[in-house]
Structure formats: C-alpha cells, structure tokens
C-alpha cells in the first residue's frame, strides 16, 4: 500500500477482554515497530521486528502483550485480559531497514484503544 | 540508556515569527536523528532525517541542525503559519539500541 495502515482505528472493549490490533506496513519494509502513546506523552516503544523475528521486545509491559509478524509483512499486536491502564493509542511504524541502518520511519494513524 | 528532552514543552506565537525548537539527548552514539510532526488524533509524519555525518538538513521553511557531540538538535521554523500548529517530536537513532526513543514533544500553536 501507499502508507502504513492500521486497523481498527478505534476499539472500545471491556476490562478482561482480548484485543487484536493489526498493522500493514509499507510494502518491502523489513523493519516494523509498535509504540504506545498516552495523552500528552511521546510514543513509548513496545517491540521491534526485523523481518519475521522480534529483534527487541523489551518494551512490552508484561506477558499480557504479545506481537507476531509471521510472514515478515503484516503484524498483529495482541493484548490479553485488557485492563483500563491499557487505554492508549497504539502506533505502528515501518522502515526500509532497521537497526543501525534505519532510515526514515513511516507511521500509521494509530489504533485508539479504550478499555472500560 | 537514551533519554530525550524537548524544550519548550509548549509554545504559542503569532504567525510570521521564526521559531526554534530544541531537542537534547544523553547518548551521543547516534546514527541519525529524525524530527516528526503530529497533528491531534493523528500518527506521526516525518519532517527531516539528519544522518550523524551531517550538520543540518533543510526542507522548505524547516531547517534542522545536529550537534552530535553535545547531544543537541534544533528545529528552526521560518515565517511560521497557523498550519504549522502541531506537536513536534524528535527521535535519535542510537547504535546502542534498535529502538527509537522519543521526547515528549513541543506543542506549537501559531495564531493568526
């Protein structure tokens, strides 16, 4: 596609439910990042994929959060047993290359998650 | 551990003014630094990417400079316009980590 696509754009769920957020990066981009942004804050790193593998998942807050990228393209961020504190905008970004060769980073519009 | 600070946190100016936004970072072992713009409720849009070997980068009315050794970058906006109103974020890419660390941004409002 022309840009990074994220779905859904908005998700409202109840505490304790399971949620999946999808990211479709720019075609050919090997590096994919997930960030979380709370109101008034900068994006907070969650996980970075290089191809199919998670090169750095040190930002995942706990084991309720998991992300996959099975074919090196689309990625899904999965949140189990959601809590009210998970409410935030989840941003996905992709880059042609990652690590020390990372070039321009392209972001999607984000998925706004609200946990009631 | 990379830490990024942006000053000022907020800025409100009349249109036509020339502006300076500051970004400082603690780990100077960087390969590049990016400046982004974020409109309310939207994702981030890349404005400028400066490689570590460069001193500055220009795009239209925007000019970003980089002083890697002192851990500073500056975004200069010339002849500001109301359409420039947004939050501006910087993110240095560090050799010591694969993840980009963001500052909390400068919220800019340019009024007519």
Could you explain how this protein is built, in words?
- The complex is a heterodimer of chains A (116) and B (112).
- Chain A has 116 residues and is mainly β.
- Chain A is built from no helices and 11 strands.
- In chain A, a hairpin with a 6-residue loop joins β7 and β8.
- The model of chain A has no long low-confidence stretch (mean pLDDT 94).
- Chain B is globular and about 45 Å long.
- In chain B, a hairpin with a 2-residue loop joins β6 and β7.
- The mean pLDDT of chain B is 94.
- Chain B is an all-beta fold and 112 residues long.
- Classes of the chains: A mainly beta (116), B mainly beta (112).
- Chains A and B meet through β5 and β10 of A and β4, β5 and β9 of B.
Give descriptors for this structure:
heterodimer, A: 116 residues, mainly beta, 7-stranded mixed β-sheet, B: 112 residues, 5-stranded mixed β-sheet, 57% strand
Helix content of chain A: under 10%
- Tell me the overall shape of chain B: globular
Measure the end-to-end span of chain B: 41 Å
Tally of DSSP β-strands of chain A: 11
Give the ordered list of helices and strands of chain B: EEEEEEEEEE
Biggest chain pair contact, residues each? A-B, 31 and 24 residues
Task: Summarize the biggest pleated sheet of chain A.
Answer: 7 strands, mixed
Regarding quaternary structure, what we see is heterodimer
